[in-house]
Specification:
It contains 14 helices and ten strands. The protein is α/β, with parallel strands linked by helices.
């Protein structure tokens, strides 16, 4: 009998979870506080609420009861939680696979040894450039780049898998090749995302950092050999190849089906972008919400044909459809999110040039069907500088 690869086994597990409506992946926001002040951050750092270990343990028990297996802890910066190791221990008692999303700037050698000993196997670290000057300018803290790289090396030495995460925006659009080279030198994978989204509170300041579809495609074309690197899976770029044609009756989103998001107050949402509140994991009970919520039930029926502006779109085979971004940008998951449209247009330019050497002119920031989104997409003022929120 052929032994399943990890990827094949995970795909089978995800398919089974979808059929059984199991929250396979749950992301929990441990805090909104952060020691950095990134230009593009969507988190409302002024909200100080965070759940205690006891409250989180109650939620973990409910998630485990519902069948969850993977927990992602995010922030803000999770390293600001002095009780992080107690939180991880509480999660591990339910045998969750725990992943951290962090800047890795605050982890001491002792912290990392404790993470490894507790069974944390994955940490995703945000890196915005191979250049310390560019990275530190994005996060608005001198020396942050060196601290993150030190943290990455310590994590790797401890046997913890690290992925480098990088959104592409105005300040780092010319840095992609160097980021790939940096990831290669560390023996890790880099993940890129062409979307820059509004803040969770509706603020649009981060949208001023968005780049056009042509600039986005050019940032990849400027990196020698990057197309081959991407296609082989060294780094992930959404839909570097073509997606197969889609059935209008196809479910297009895992949100509310096999994944969900719990914020620092315990409020439950379909995902980190789709901020349609389901209820509160403490007062309402996560298990009850997952099993009986009418909002979840409605979301689980959401199909491609419900995306009104996407039916005849020429970019479908280059687009990672995301109802959550539509909800975040326009208050309606059935409408196209401009950052998704622009990324899909960049994917097509990139694909056509790399595969067929089709030259292109920059079409600008591409918004399909979103007649009111251009003002959100471009020309917003820079965010007012916040104090370091450590």
């Amino acid at each position: 009998m052929r032994r399943l690869s990890v990827g094949d086994a995970l795909a089978k597990l995800e398919a089974a979870a979808w059929r059984a409506v199991v929250p396979l992946y749950v992301t929990v926001e441990l805090t909104r506080r952060c020691n950095l002040n990134c230009d593009h951050c969507y988190v409302d750092h002024h909200i100080k609420d965070q759940l205690s270990v006891e409250q989180l343990d109650k939620i973990f028990a409910d998630v485990a009861r519902a069948g969850g297996l993977f927990l992602g802890f995010t922030g803000g910066e999770v390293g600001l939680r002095k009780d992080l190791h107690e939180i991880i221990a509480a999660a591990r008692q339910y045998r969750f696979n725990v992943k951290l999303l962090s800047t890795a700037t605050l982890f001491s050698q002792e912290d990392i040894e404790r993470l490894a000993a507790s069974g944390v196997r994955q940490v995703k670290v945000s890196i915005y450039s191979a250049s310390p000057a560019v990275h530190d300018r994005v996060v608005r803290r001198a020396g942050a780049h060196a601290l993150s790289l030190r943290g990455i090396r310590r994590l790797l030495d401890a046997g913890i898998e690290v992925t480098m995460a990088c959104p592409i925006m105005r300040e780092n659009k010319d840095e992609i090749a160097s980021i790939v080279a940096l990831a290669d030198s560390l023996g890790i994978r880099a993940e890129f995302d062409g979307r820059v989204n509004p803040m969770e509170n509706g603020g649009t300041d981060p949208c001023s950092l968005r780049i056009t579809a042509g600039e986005l495609a050019a940032s990849f074309n400027a990196a020698p050999g990057l197309a081959e690197y991407l296609m082989k899976g060294g780094s992930s770029w959404e839909n570097g190849g073509l997606l197969p044609p889609r059935d209008p009756d196809e479910h297009v989103c895992s949100a509310g089906n096999t994944l969900c998001f719990i914020d620092s107050r315990g409020d439950v949402f379909p995902c980190v972008w789709w901020r349609e509140k389901i209820g509160n994991a403490l007062s309402d009970g996560f298990y009850e919400l997952w099993k009986t919520s009418r909002v979840f039930a409605r979301i689980r029926q959401f199909k491609l044909k419900d995306l009104h502006e996407c039916q005849d779109c020429s970019l479908q085979q280059h687009c990672s459809v995301c109802p959550g971004v539509g909800y975040q940008e326009r208050g309606d998951a059935a409408l196209a999110g401009s950052s998704v449209c622009n990324t899909a247009a960049a994917n097509k330019l990139f694909y056509d040039y790399e595969r067929h050497r089709v030259p292109y002119e920059d079409p600008g920031y591409v918004v399909l069907g979103a007649t009111g989104a251009k003002g959100v997409a471009r020309g917003m003022s820079k965010r007012t500088k916040l104090p370091i929120l450590g």
